[in-house]
Specification:
Helix content is 79%, strand content 0%. By secondary structure, the chain is mainly alpha-helical. The longest helix has 48 residues, at 25-72.
Length: 103
């Protein structure tokens, strides 16, 4: 716990008892405990939200990568295959040839 051992903790409690007084010390300790619990709850919530956002970003990147892979694979999409074939035919016709490539 923050590198504080039992002797140091006892010294801190004795000094707090002397400075604050025995009537106020339990109230202050209770308030400090509630504050630390709220801080822990907020930090856990923050960590959970960050992990969820990272997971969402990873899923989004994976989906984009799969979409790019699907777009790059014309055999996987018949419409893309027909369009690619039409483009090749138009290119061949514009060359005015029989489709043979000149060297």
């Amino acid at each position: 716990m923050f590198g504080i051992g039992m002797p140091e903790l006892i010294v801190i409690l004795v000094i707090a008892l002397i400075v604050i007084g025995p009537q106020k010390l339990p109230d202050i300790a209770r308030s400090l405990g509630k504050g630390l619990a709220e801080f822990k709850r907020a930090s856990d919530d923050f960590q959970r939200n960050m992990a969820e956002e990272v997971r969402n970003l990873d899923e989004k990147e994976k989906a984009e990568k799969e979409a790019q892979t699907a777009a790059a694979d014309p055999m996987g999409d018949p419409a893309a295959e027909v369009k690619a074939h039409g483009d090749r035919a138009a290119e061949t016709a514009s060359r005015g040839g029989d489709g043979a490539k000149s060297a």
